[in-house]
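The material for today's practical consists of a large collection of protein records. Getting from the letters to the tokens is the skill we practise here. To make this concrete, we reproduce a full record directly below:
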Amino acid sequence: MLRNMATSLINAENEYIVTTMPKAKELRSYVEKVITLSRKAQVLEGDSAKADAVHLRRQAASFFHAGNFTHNQEMSRFRGKKGEAKERPERTAGVKAVQRLFGELGARYENRPGGYTRIIRLGRRKGDNAEMAVIELVDNPRELESKKAVK
């Protein structure tokens, strides 16, 4: 569940998701660990920097949902026949999340020592009285745009 939620949060266009308060609290530490890995990759220098960056990407990929095929028929089309080129499956949400994490978010939080997420309480859900919350990434484009408008 945390993998799916982390994938959704990183891939979300508005960079927030609505969930229950206990789930948001658990997700916060989970996502902050991954963002710290991407920050480390941004500041690497030296001869072994490329190998270390690949290692950090692979570590981060384990935090996201990769997406699986369940039927042999679906996988058979990717094997290809002898002498034919293999058809590649589309990138999954987890791969897109890792790309966005190391491309955009790592650079955004390069100088921030921690606290990459914010939890905002929304009140209680009507059906089961569960406390709802929004978990969002700080310094998102929507937030920066509103700060400019206030100034």
